[in-house]
Design brief:
Elements lengths: L5 E3 L4 H11 L3 E4 L5 H6 L7 E4 L9 E4 L2 E5 L4 H5 L2 H6 L1 H8 L4 H4 L4 H7 L7 H6 L3 E6 L2 E6 H4 E3 L2 E2 L6 E8 L6 E7 L10 E9 L5 E9 L6 E2 L1 H7 L6 H14 L10 H20 L11
Parallel strand pairs: 1-3, 2-3
Antiparallel strand pairs: 4-5, 5-10, 6-7, 6-10, 8-9, 11-12, 12-13, 13-14
The structure holds flavin-adenine dinucleotide (FAD).
Length: 295
């Protein structure tokens, strides 16, 4: 069977960028192929040349240097799941990728692919947004660093320029005592796209006040979104059970879900409220007030 595209395996970033420049809009980066091949088969995209970066060394590293964690874009989900370094710095990312799909998909799927696909339900994105991650983009014009929360613009849309690639994801150092969580809500435990997902992290003062907090909701808006009002309601407070309920209700108000094959918008809002409450209870240690969740 003849493939409708040429296949190239660049040996360096320079080779890759040169090839992409020549191919222009007809070139596409191939990482694990778990999203791209599906789109090609469905006729949604028809690249003329595929540039396989799955073994491209500069995009395959996990490095901790000068207080920052750098995860190459072609690092696979299974490698993230097995990384003690990532577990120590962003444990919620490990939780997220461990729950993704199946072992077969995790052995192929990469972090860069998950980000560039820009699905609102992408599991790796909320923990990274909660951790204030940035992406390093390289292209003919050089290198630039963009906050992940600004890079993903909408479903299937990113700020990636023609001929540009995501080289790595950078996570800044956090306090050693930071607590973080990821929760995936799907129809079953494996092989399920998230109906919603949530990531959060909290830095507490020694007197029990919330120093800083991030609440990030996935599949509850066109992109993974910070629940800013909910965060603001808790920052600087010593939250009790009622404060956590109020914050969860705010998160449900500020999210912007849609109805699709997995859930209705109203159903997603209920899930956001219930699971945000659960996540905040776990993060803050303030516990349940005995009234349970609302769904
Ligand atoms: C059966 C199945 C189950 C799945 N389950 C889940 C799930 O539970 N959770 C979830 O989040 N996702 C899931 N996915 C989606 C998919 O596996 C992930 O989004 C995955 O991380 C994509 O990575 P990849 O390496 O396969 O990307 P690819 O398919 O290789 O690429 C995806 C897109 O990103 C571009 N791209 C890739 N890397 C780069 C780069 N470094 N720079 C620039 N562009 C790049 C490609 O050109 C393409 O447009 C599932 C997919 C399948 C088929």
């Amino acid at each position: 069977m003849a493939f409708p595209f040429d296949y190239v395996r660049p040996r360096s970033l320079e080779d890759l960028l040169g090839g992409l420049r020549q191919a222009g809009s007809e070139g596409a980066v191939l990482a694990g192929g778990t999203d791209l091949h599906v789109k090609i088969r469905a006729g949604k995209t028809q690249p003329r040349v595929l540039f396989d970066i799955s073994e491209l060394e500069p995009c395959r590293r996990i490095v901790e240097k000068e207080g920052k964690l750098r995860i190459g874009a072609a690092v696979r989900m299974a490698e993230i799941a097995a990384s003690a370094t990532i577990q120590r710095i962003v444990p919620s990312l490990v939780t997220a990728v461990t729950q993704m799909s199946s072992r077969q998909i995790r052995n192929r799927a990469t972090l860069g692919g998950n980000i560039v696909t820009a699905s609102p339900a992408a599991d790796a994105v909320p923990p990274l947004v909660a951790a204030d991650a940035t992406v390093t983009l390289v292209g003919a014009e050089g290198q630039r660093e963009v906050a992940l929360s600004e890079f993903i613009l909408g479903p299937g849309k990113t700020g990636l320029g023609v001929g540009e690639v995501v080289a790595e994801v950078v996570v800044p150092a956090a306090r050693a005592d930071r607590r973080s969580r990821f929760i995936k809500v799907g129809r079953r435990k494996a092989q399920a796209i998230s109906i919603i997902n949530l990531a959060g992290c909290i830095d507490m003062e020694t007197d029990g006040r919330v120093h800083d907090i991030r609440i990030v909701l996935g599949a509850a808006a066109p992109t993974a979104m910070r629940a800013y009002q909910a965060e603001q309601a808790l920052r600087g407070r010593t939250p009790g059970p009622e404060d956590l309920r109020e914050a969860a209700a705010l998160a449900a108000q500020e999210c912007r879900p849609i109805s699709d094959i997995r859930a209705t918008a109203a159903g997603r809002r209920l899930l956001v409220e219930a699971w945000t409450l659960r996540m905040l209870q776990e993060l803050s240690g303030a516990g349940d007030d005995g009234r349970g969740a609302d769904t």
